[in-house]
Write a structure and sequence with these properties.
Immunoglobulin-like, eight-stranded parallel beta sheet, TIM Barrel, six-stranded antiparallel beta sheet, 28 strands, alpha/beta, 24% helix
């Protein structure tokens, strides 16, 4: 039999067993060995229900691939040692771009080398039936896509803030596992498949969170490995990111032995992350959502591709705590990209409105992070007008704002503007440079500007403010006197620019920053326009003493050769 598919797209086919098993999920394992002349993949098949197994594969290049099945029951000739030919043709509609890590391990990027500025949205319970498919799920996805989000964090059925088999965890086909964790429920995943596929079709990368951390002790390591194997089989062929667990080291809310549980979870999740890395034939990126710092949730941080941080939901306190965690994380080894994974959901508790979202985003991105994850209270738990999520096991309630209202909170739009704006700059090359600004007269940590940039190319400063000209003035330092910069203020609320004009530093490399347009938070941008720096090496030996802006060079060429 020959199966035809296209590069970068999902190829799917089935295997039907002639033998009926009393418990096929637990009694039968089916792997599919796929190879071409360069590589071999061992892809787990997933039980589809009854006597049916399916396999999904995404081929990286056109050509002929050999396919052979390996079944744990070698006597079952309808599942074992079945051979096919997979014929992969070039895609006419484009391929799914997959995320990788840059060679310097500072940022995430697409597999074609394009930098990827992570702007995630938090839909922890987005696979539950409270977010109806297709109409509601499509509405929320379209809103996030239009605003500029590119990652959706979503939990694979084993949700936070509830016990196992809480009614709020079900989708239209029931729970993700049968009660007692006896076996997986494939019908749950049939419903979830449509949602994951839709996110991918909209260009939104699913960050699949396997389970909340405390489920590891509730279901055991072996079941968690089977759970993750099933996720890999179902969704690994898609351009997803794996998040091993949410708050991996956090014990269950009502645990009577929290310290012992924490130690067991750290050890256990280390084993699970190792299992994911070994079992996933597609080698998708792996991270873990922490109580604070991702690498501290396991004993072998080198198993992670990038790190998530969580700074809590305490307004200003969380901003400064997040900055401290980030400063430490980017300096630790092994070196890896760092993304803010959770901070100050908009609308949760106090001091988490739109201005806190802007403060958190800019302090994070200018502090050396590779991305930022937003969350709106009401969306992560999918409150609806008639059925808000209600209390967590500890008895407290995070709030009843419906997701339809939370979707339109202004912070999400403003962070989308911020991401789109940063993508017009060489953000992936920026480095935090607090030494580039004179903060004399700053009265609090809150008022201290955040600054990042690139030598001779870019300075970008975030002022939370307000900055009063009679008490606080700032100066840029170490500004190259031989570079003329184009300067402007950028409004993080609207995306509008307020032009300053061409500026140069004095002989000491200092430039006095003018008053901000209003007593609000602002972005200051200086982009190199031209340079008079003497060159060295070959160009200097030829007598070239000045870098001319490209548009002036083009004018000269046009004049000489017209």
């Amino acid at each position: 039999m020959t199966i035809t598919a296209y590069t970068g797209q999902i190829a799917e086919w089935d295997y039907l067993s002639d033998i009926s098993y009393a418990d096929p999920f637990n009694h039968v394992r089916l792997d599919i060995i796929i190879s071409n002349d360069k590589q071999t993949w061992k892809v787990p098949a997933f039980w589809r229900g009854k006597e049916r197994w399916s396999v999904r594969f995404s081929a990286p290049a056109p050509g002929v691939y050999n396919v052979r099945s390996q079944c744990s029951d070698k006597d079952n000739t309808s599942l074992h040692d079945i051979t096919h030919t997979l014929h992969i043709e070039p895609s006419e509609t484009g391929t799914h771009k997959v995320l990788t890590i840059s060679s310097d391990k500072n940022i995430l990027q697409y597999d074609n080398g394009d930098p990827f500025l992570w702007l995630g949205d938090t839909w922890w319970m987005g696979l539950s039936e409270r977010l109806r498919y297709p109409e509601e799920f499509h509405t929320l996805a379209q809103d996030r896509k239009e605003k500029g989000f590119n990652v959706i964090l979503i939990v694979a059925g084993l949700y936070p803030d509830m016990d196992a088999f809480d009614a709020r965890a079900a989708n239209q086909s029931g729970f993700v596992w049968e009660e007692g964790f006896s076996r997986i429920n494939p019908a749950f995943f049939d419903e979830a498949d449509m949602r994951i596929a839709h996110l991918v079709s909209e260009g939104l990368t699913p960050c699949i969170v396997g389970a909340w951390g405390y489920y590891l002790l509730k279901m055991g390591n072996e079941n968690m490995r089977r759970h993750w194997e099933y996720l890999i089989a179902r969704w690994g062929a898609y351009p997803v990111v794996w998040c091993a667990a949410g708050e991996a080291a956090m014990p269950y809310y009502l645990s009577e032995t929290p310290e012992q549980d924490k130690a067991k979870q750290i050890k256990g999740w280390t084993e699970i992350v190792h299992f994911i890395r070994e079992r996933d034939p597609f080698k998708r990126l792996i991270t873990i959502h922490p109580t604070e710092v991702g690498r501290d949730q396991i004993t072998q941080p080198e198993l992670l591709d990038f790190e998530l941080l969580q700074a809590g939901h305490n307004g200003y306190k969380s901003i400064f705590w997040g900055s401290k965690l980030l400063h430490q994380a980017v300096q630790r080894t092994p070196h890896m990209p760092v993304v803010m994974g959770e901070i100050n959901y908009e609308g949760i508790i106090h001091d988490t409105g739109a201005e806190m979202q802007r403060f958190a985003f800019w302090s994070t991105l200018l502090g050396g992070a590779a991305g930022f994850t937003y969350g709106a209270n009401g969306i992560w738990q999918v409150n609806t007008p008639k059925t808000p999520f209600g209390p967590s096991p500890h008895g407290g309630c995070w709030g009843n704002t419906p997701w339809q209202e939370a979707m339109n909170l202004p912070g999400s739009r403003q962070l989308g503007l911020a991401k789109t704006f940063l993508e017009t700059l060489p953000w992936e090359q920026m480095q935090p440079r607090p030494d580039w600004i004179d903060t004399t007269g700053s009265h609090s940590e809150r008022e201290t500007p955040h600054i990042s940039g690139i030598d001779e190319v870019l300075r970008i400063v975030y002022f939370y403010g307000p900055v009063y000209p009679w008490s606080q003035r700032y100066r840029l330092l170490a500004l190259e006197s031989y570079v003329a910069y184009e300067a402007y203020f950028w409004d993080p609320r609207t995306g509008q620019q307020e032009q300053i004009g061409m500026v140069t530093a004095n002989g000491n490399g200092v430039w006095d920053i003018p008053p901000l347009p209003t007593y609000e938070d602002w972005i200051l941008v200086l982009r190199a326009h031209s340079s008079t720096k003497p060159l060295s090496g070959t160009e200097a030996s030829k007598g070239i003493k000045r870098l001319i802006p490209s548009r002036i060079k083009n004018m000269i060429r046009s004049f000489l050769f017209r």
